[in-house]
Amino acid sequence: MAEEEQFLVPSDVYLKSGIHIGTKFKTKYMERFIYKTRPDGLSVLNLQKINERIIIAISFLAQYAPDEILVVSRRENGWRPVKLFGKLTGAKVFAGRYPPGILTNPRLDNFIEAKVLLVTDAWPDRNAIEDAMKMGIPIIALCDTNNQSNKIDLVVPLNNKGKKSLGLFFWLLTTGYMKARGMIKDEKEIKYKLDDFAEE
């Protein structure tokens, strides 16, 4: 299968993580990423498009030095993989409730300067998105079928609620980013495996 060759990981790895399983609610913004709706009403995201967008996100982020990147995750299932991404790449991360102003107000103790923002979910992370918009910095957001994506520069469609799917995304992002920046030659150099990103 020629399609398989372009996948970052074999399709069964994607499928096992549930990265393609959406919600019962879908917005018009996300329709183009949806492959089908299952009999139980859950929307299923298109694996090709998920894979394509992850590749785009990696090459886009790779244009930025680690200290120019801020990753925000209000959603608890994203905390472990987000922190591991930060630890391994040197990117700035914010796991937990993001108080407005961190990107915009230099007088705050926890002020963060960044040139690009990645959020794990456009809805709970909307404070960070508002700040990034004020600062005019590009926004990448992981969007499920129920997300609005009108303020996002790059939408990465995937299940942004599951531990395994967030773990897989951040593992791919970490290894892809580090390779693209010349920090590693291949993922064997990283002492953390895919499971470390997804497990408790």
Structure explained in plain terms:
The chain is 36% helix and 14% strand. The relative contact order is 0.19. The N and C termini lie far apart (35 Å). The model has no long low-confidence stretch (mean pLDDT 94). The longest helix has 18 residues, at 163-180. By secondary structure, the protein is an alpha/beta fold. The chain contains seven helices and seven strands. The chain has a single domain, classed as Rossmann fold.
CATH homologous superfamily annotation: Glucose-6-phosphate isomerase like protein, domain 1
The major beta sheet can be summarized as: 5 strands, parallel
CATH top level? Alpha Beta
Number of helices: 7
- What string, H for helix and E for strand, traces the elements in order? HHEEHEHEEHEEHH
- Physical arrangement of strands within the biggest beta sheet: 4-3-5-6-7
Radius of gyration: 16 Å
The total strand number stands at 7
Query: How far is it from the N-terminal to the C-terminal residue, by CA?
Result: 35 Å
CATH topology: Rossmann fold
Low-confidence stretches: none
CATH architecture: 3-Layer(aba) Sandwich
In helices, the fraction of residues equals 25-40%
Assembly annotation: single chain
Domain tally:
1
Mean model confidence by pLDDT: 94
Shape: globular
- SS content category: alpha/beta
Fraction in beta strands: 5-15%
